[in-house]
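Researcher: Quick sanity check before group meeting.
Model: Go ahead. Protein one:
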Amino acid sequence: MEAIGLVASVIAIVQISGACLKLSLKPLGPSSYKPERLQSLSTTLYGFNGNIRNLQTLLEIYEDDQARLDTLNHLQEPLMKCHEALQLLSSRLQSDGFFAQYIMGSKFDKKFELCLRVLNDAKDLLELSLQCDQRILISAVESYIRNVAEDTRDIKAAIKQNEQLIQSIDTRIKQPSDLAMRLHDEHTQSVARLESSIRDVHIDIESQESEGRLREQLRHRSLVLNWLSNVDFRSNYLDALRKRESGTGQWLIDQELFRSWRDGPVRALWLNGMPGAGKTFLSTAVVDHLERTSTCPVVYFYFDFKDSVKQAIESMMRSVAVQLETSLLHNKVSPALEQLYSNCQKTGSGRNPTLDEVTDLIIALSAFAPKFYIILDALDECENREELLEAITTLKNSAVNAKLFVTSRQEQDIIECLTEDDFTPVTILEDSVNHDIGLYVSSILRNNIHLRRLPKELKRHIQNTLTAGAKSMQVDMIRPLKRPKIIREALEKLPKNLDETYKRILLRVSTEDEENLVQMRRIFAFVTFAKRPLTLAELAQAVVVEIRGKQFDEDAAFYDPKDLLSLCRPLVDISPSTGLLGFVHYSVQEFLLSNRLSSAEGAVRMFALNDGSCHMEIAQICLTFVGFDDFADGPCQTFKELQDRKEKYPFLDYAAEYWPSHTKHKDVEVAVSDLLLKLLVPQKNAKLGSVIQACDNPNINSPSCGSWGTALMTAIHFDRQDIVGMLLDLKIDVNVGGGYYYTALHSAAIMNDIHTMKRVIQLGANIDFGKESWRQFDDRLPLSMASSFGCSRAFLYLIASGASLCNVPIESWANDLALGIDYKDVSKEWALTFADELSSLGHYVEVVVFSKGLGNSELLEGGRLMLEGENVSFYFRAKDPPV
């Protein structure tokens, strides 16, 4: 490729990828493809756009360096494919017509998938090319520095000779001559040129070092922030922002009390109101207003009854800390967070920070901001309100620069705490709610294809009726009606409260679609009691499972998963940001779980939910699904096969991961005992291998179940302690083995899983398996396997349990163990502690320690091998027991 052609191609791709990025939030219309894959478009485009811009910058720098540009010729073909893929995406994203939105969407999936794959592959190739070029540049700079150093020495030698010559001339002539002056000038100029060259080299070196430090700093920052919190805190805000009508909540923004909170002395506001008053939309209005008008950091968190992660106070506090950290420091980690991360990583495998530690971190970060805002929505949806209210009190009292805005229902514990803590209450009044509802109803009347054609007088009547009664949800009862007379009659009979509204909706959907009543109830059960929110594709398979069936009946499934929404709207909807299903409001779930519905008369009572029956039904569905003959072939042999299986059976992920959780609820395990035994009892059940592989979700080819041995060994390897516990409770033969690691005890030893080792030994595991044919360095012995994999805790537990050393000196075992441990995990403290623990078990060893990098003749004694840790060189040797 000619240099000018490469530059032009890159510029064209930068332009079109930027255009696609701006259009990526635009709805794509119907698509049979997975929503989560469609959501990856923005992420893919962001990553690709960054890499292609980096390449553009590189080409501008190397504009006159033809040799360097020639090294990038291999990018021609990938860039051409990227250009074609981006053109295809751009044309799709710019399409607004009916045909493009509703017909071409479903035909576009394969091309869409290909485009994403091309862009992801190209992104990785560009990253690799840029890294290679960087290494070449660094090597060239180092070579240049060496050459300059050699030239410098030569010049200095020449200067010294000149100085000696000048001194010789000066001794011969007492008066300055033209020759002496000329030599002096040349000498001065040479020194100046040399100093300038050295300065330029130093500047280049410092620039390269600074760039490297910045890249490492950003990588470390991303790692630490992701460790602290990876909760998607923006999805609830974005969903509410999309649904919110312009002007909603303006009455709150215009209040003198709000302005006093935003700019004045008021530090804490508590917005409260009845269910359905629009508190989440008002929180969103506040966040949107502050982000557009304030230069101070704005952090927020929406508690969410639909997502168990977002019901935890730990999730909220850690998210607030991450948002505050990223708002205040853009390129590095704050000292407070760095210290917290370091403390939590000292345990080796690491731990999560405690709630008190995160609270202290937020308080420490608050010192960097003269003022910042914290908006917390739906406190009443937090699972541990007592801890939450304590944390809010601590933040208010300790983070003096924080302005807090919280919302909730008027529940007694919240009223008492926030009133005592001087939160100024703002109660949502009916007039304010009616104004916001009026905006929503007006939008429906303008945009609905049927309602917008109604007579103006009738639309005013609808507007006034729904607004005056604060009945925004009841617009869904009017939406499908087409005759003015029927609409007027419906307006006269509107429900008086939320309970009556929900009853009418349930009655309507049950009478309009009687053949799907079971599926509707299952939808409500999964949305309420699932361990995580489900996608539309997952739920569409789950609700049609025939309990205790043999295989999945594709004829019973929904042809299009989107048809599922028609069964349960307007009570259930899909989040545009996450693609996950949930109730439209917390009050829907409360009603379905309430005695008001379970004691109601008529058909609607069948939709009443309770904890026991729902977990039992979900457990039966999950166990039936993973036990289908569709998975009788066992684990997939390649990652591609696993991807194809999960694409065909999207519910497999959830069923494989969470069936143990649902069976643990009261009385459920007894009710599903036949399904449990069918799955767990066979020692080498291929279906159980498929289940364990599915929830491991590997990124590389995964070995078959046979490679790991029995189902118990497979569960140990993938750290499925719930399944391990169930299998061991059945008192299975733990010495049945096979595969890579011989027995369950071997598998537990290499996982450093002491709890499982203890249980299998109690059940009769052979602690000296393979001793009869054992040779040094043969890994058939559990002790040898723990040693080879550097599993010191398992090694010590086996020694303490009486494992045989097979006539091999203890110091040889100890040195072999140290070789198996990661270089960075080996320290002088570890070696001394390990030696003390062995000695306490009656196997006496000591540690011979040397300074890092220094040799010692004693190392050669007996052919001993010096062990290298990050900051230590050492080896173990036997010592005499104490007298």
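Researcher: Fine. The other one?
Model: Protein two, sequence then structure:
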Amino acid sequence: MNNIINDKKDIPSLDSIIECARNAGKTAMRYFRHNDRMEMHNKLNDSDIVTTADNECESYIKEFIKSHYPSHSILSEESGETQGIATYRWVIDPIDGTTNFFSGIPLWGISIGVELNGETVIGVVYLPATDELFYAEKGKGAFLNGKRIHVSDQSKLSRSVISTGFPVDKDSNPDNNLDNLAAVLPLVRDIRRLGAATADICYTAAGFLGGYWELNLHEWDVNAGLLILTEAGGRYTRFRDDRNISIVCGSPEIHDQLLPLLNTSPRKV
């Protein structure tokens, strides 16, 4: 499978991915702050939800991929993996930050990453409610609404605003990030909890945040965002290998100060 040579017309363009993300955003916005128009169901628990909008956005993105790039593989949050025969794989989160979305909070986003032979080469994150479009191609820099972005040049942790999040199994698993929060909070200007990993990573890439860490994420949460971050001069580390994807990221200086503060093993109660 990996020896297949992709035809030029089978190579995704950044413009086509941006078009896909924007159109999916239009679908989601028809439901945003109109909960009467959609259904909501729990997945794991009350903290882990899916809505009609998630499913419709995912359907739109998958149909877009199948109609334009039918040989490509797809990994999506709601429906899992669809195998293709090409060396490209799309990693999509149709709505990252569904709790924010359902609550009427505008920090939620559509995340589309495209991998070639296992390496992310294009990343697009669109926050429709704020009309913020982040994107990057490998080796070409990172952009927000057409303007180049870069991580913060602030090197002091005490003058940095840092964001984090909490795993959806926080109700039943004591390994819930509170130990890391206690270690970091006294040392920073302040902590934010945005509620969408795509926003956390892209806001770090743009220098709005100094850094970000979180436990128990998944590939669709971070795939596009981490390319945007690194193309903006940022650095990240997967600091746990036993809690799905657990990352810390930021400017190189802030990343290097945050990393030793975080536990690399489960919290002991």
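Researcher: One line on it for the slide.
Model: The two ends are 47 Å apart (CA to CA).
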